[in-house]
Structure formats: C-alpha cells, structure tokens
Amino acid sequence: MKNLDKKYLEQTASCLMAKDKGILAADESNETAGKRLADIEVANTQENRRLYRELFLGLPGLEKYISGVILFDETFWQKSDSDAPYPQFLSEKNILPGIKIDLGAKDFPGFPGEKLTVGLDDLPERVKKYAENGATFVKWRAVIIIDEKNNLPTPQAIEANADALGRYARICQEAGLVPILEPEVLLNGPHSIAKAEETTTIVLKKVFEKVQEHKVHVPGLILKTSMVIQGDENPDEASPEEIAEATVRVLLQTVPKNIGGVVFLSGGQTPIEASAHLDAIAEKRSLPFEIAFSYARALQGPAMQIWKGKPENVEAARIEFKKRLQLNTLADAGDYDISLEYSD
C-alpha cells in the first residue's frame, strides 16, 4: 500500500471547496449528452457534443463561480475553440480539471432492479493516465434505488456499492487525485421524505465505514450527496425547510467532521428547486464542513433551451447559464431569494 501525499490531497480538496464557488458536473456520458441534444433537436455527433461542452466551459469569467469541472472521457481529450486541450484550458482559468472515472452502473447480478457501478479492474492504470494529462480530481457515482414494494435497496446492493466507493477512493488518492464519492439515492418513486432520510442515512453510514476500512484519507476526499427529498411520484411535497432539516440531520449523523467537503447533486430537481433547497440547507449554518453545489442539468438546462445548437444563440445562452451560476452562488451562502429568478 503506497503512502499518500496527504497535504497535497487536502490542498486540492480545499481549492475545490473554495467559498462562493461550485463544481460543474459536465460528465454526462455520450448517450446522456445525446438525450440532452435530442431535447433541442440537435444531432448527437462528436462535434455537437464538443460544442455543447464549449457552450459552458467557454463562458468568460467561469472561474468566478466554478472551482472545478468534472469531465467525461471524450471531453477530456478534446480541444476547446482556442485549440487547447480542455484540461489545459481549464487550468489556465484556475479551474481544476476532473474526470468521471467509473464505467457506469450495471445490473447487479442476483438482485433484480438494482445497480452496481463498475470500473475497478483497470482503475490504477486509467487513473495514472488521467493524472499524467492534467486531472486533479476524480468522481465515481453509485446508484441507490428506493422501491418499497420490492424491498429495495437491499443491504447487499448498499454494501457492494459502498465497498466499490471505498476501494476507488484509496486507489485514486494513491495516484494523488482527490476522489469525489457520489452515492446517489434516486428520486424516482412514490416514497416519502422519511423513507429517503432513512435510506440516505444507511447508505452514507456504510460508505464511511468502507472509507475507514480502505484507509482513505478523509480530509482529502469530497462527498457528493443527494439532498433528502420525497420521491417524484409522491404528492406530499416537502418544503425547502423540511428538506433542509432532513438533509442536515443525515449529514450530522453520518459524515466525518474532518471531511474535505460536501457538495450536493441536483438529481431530478428543477433549477429553481435545486437553488431553493441549497439555500435552505445553507441557512441552517450548522454543518462543520464546507458545502457547495455540483449540478449538471440544474445549471445547464435553461441555457440549452436557448442555445438549440445555433452559434447565434451562444451569447444569450451563456447569459442564462451565468445567471444560474450567480443564483446558486447566492444559495450556497444562504442569500438566495426566489424573487431573483424573475429579475433582470
């Protein structure tokens, strides 16, 4: 087992968790990126996917709002409009380049309806390649499904995914990269906010058990977590205050105080919901670690509807993207108000 450069890992995590900034999740797979493009009637080609990334990464002043960007493999090796490889392009803006390192959530053999994220087999070699080409941090996403009719999630699925997260984190820290651990409890279904809280608590406790078991340096890692929200088919909609209270309770019970930081995923929320809920959590001011946002669609979705793949729409789309960045920066400080959504 290699020694870790703990100081370097902590410094990188601290840069990622810089105050008044978030981490942009630009790591949609080619298939998912294709769905986003299809929504605006744009063909899913390699160049159109690059233009999709360029729309956001090329925003002048992006570094005022974003500390790091999680890239997908294809984007990592592509070049910006200025002909610089994207990791270099971001580094020159003082934005840390990161990479989604897992190979996707696959059907979990023997456990119908559940997923296990794969990609550990050749992870040391892949991590080394990305580190040599400019990556400073990595991300691995696990998918946890709540299905009360079928008694999901099972303890086995939670155990297997948590163990993979722990193993991944140690491998990446040995390569000098800060791991982001993303155990996402999906919003899909009719479950209550109480069930979401119960499940998220169990999942995060198991994740940090595995983090300890695999001797991961906690101050040199970041948790990317779901907010505690009822299922999207549940008509009993919780208020931002209730969501914040449940989320903070879970984090205080499960997350080590010395963690490098915690960022929230938007996972099925609308852009306004993601901002309002983050603001309500930030207003609690009761967490012992830094928090921030790490959104994809909640930042990019409205701008995509303006862009529609047309060069003449880039400027207007970037104005909308910048607005969402500004609003979430305010939310991260507990200073967001929904009235700001409707002001110029």
Labels describing this entry:
single chain, 344 residues, alpha/beta, TIM Barrel, 8-stranded parallel β-sheet, 12 helices, 14% strand, globular
The amount of beta strand, in percent, is: 5-15%
The total of helices stands at 12
Uncertain spans: none
- How much helicity do the residues have? 40-55%
Total number of beta strands: 10
- Spatial arrangement of strands, main beta sheet: 1-2-3-6-7-8-9-10
Query: Mind telling me the CATH superfamily name?
Result: Aldolase class I
Q: What spatial form do the alpha-carbon principal axes imply?
A: globular
Order of helices and strands: HEHHEHHEEEHEHEHEHEHEHH
- What multimeric state do the chains show? single chain
Query: In CATH terms, what is the fold-level topology?
Result: TIM Barrel
The major β-sheet equals: 8 strands, parallel
Structurally, how many domains make up the residues?
Answer: 1
Distance between the ends: 55 Å
What is the second-level CATH architecture? Alpha-Beta Barrel
Q: Which structural class is indicated by helix and strand composition? A: alpha/beta
Cα-based radius of gyration, to the nearest Å:
19 Å
CATH class: Alpha Beta
- Mean pLDDT across all residues, rounded? 97
Q: What does this protein look like?
A:
By secondary structure, this protein is α/β, with parallel strands linked by helices. The chain has a single domain, classed as TIM Barrel. Helices cover 44% and strands 14% of the residues. Helix 9 links the parallel strand 8 and strand 9 (261-264). It starts with 5 loop residues before the first helix and ends in a 12-residue tail after the last helix. 49% of the residues are buried. The model has no long low-confidence stretch (mean pLDDT 97).
